[in-house]
């Protein structure tokens, strides 16, 4: 049985603005709902159009890290509006692509907007990240683009390992704390902050690299790449703060701005690193 989605109000507002035809929201978020990546962060101007391009760039960084090529079977878990699926279909051929999300509204939008290119195949599936209705060893790559902090990580890593064929890989992006920061964030229960929960929902920001290695080892995986791209993602915060400034409800602006500021401070102080991780199956 699929669990009911626990979506933050921020997603509700984003979907509403897209449905209302808000051009700035569409330029930034019609394809991807995640942080952006800039090659030269100091030069970022953070227009909605540039943000949309930066989000696509982050998607490509993950896909390149995963080594995706023609003919692969790929599952994108937490696929949002299907932007990564669309990007892959545009760039490669003979792909079998499956997008998984627990929120039927996001899947509905993805199914409406994303069409396969050439002879690629695309399927969208509503499922919990720990219970994906696909066969054992049925894919070459599992992706999780800025979604894993919403999951039970131990259950998700086990499920990803089940899905992967030998030699396949799990590639994801996550906010990864230093070992000392992980203990501190756990102690203060950072994720329970009212603003954080309103803005980003139920999240867990306490999984360090050592913890990831433990989870990988327990499930027949090995961490083979850890790339810290925090600096490249920092302009995201400027854009998000500006994008919320004209929301009609001041309380929502206050909560979102506070939550995003907390994440920015933790990132700039080195407590949280935005990392791209690749795990290979033995």
From TrEMBL:
Tree of life domain: Bacteria
Protein name as annotated: Demethylrebeccamycin-D-glucose O-methyltransferase
Signal peptide range in chain numbering: none
Enzyme Commission number: 2.1.1.164
GO biological process, one term: methylation
Gene (name only): rebM_3
Gene3D superfamilies, A to Z: Vaccinia Virus protein VP39
Keywords annotated in UniProt: Methyltransferase, S-adenosyl-L-methionine, Transferase
InterPro entries (UniProt xref): Erg6_SMT_methyltransf, MeTfrase_dom, Methyltransf_11, SAM-dependent_MTases_sf
One GO MF term attached to the UniProt entry: S-adenosylmethionine-dependent methyltransferase activity
Domain Polyketide synthase-like methyltransferase: 43-268
Enzyme class: transferase
Record organism: Bythopirellula goksoeyrii
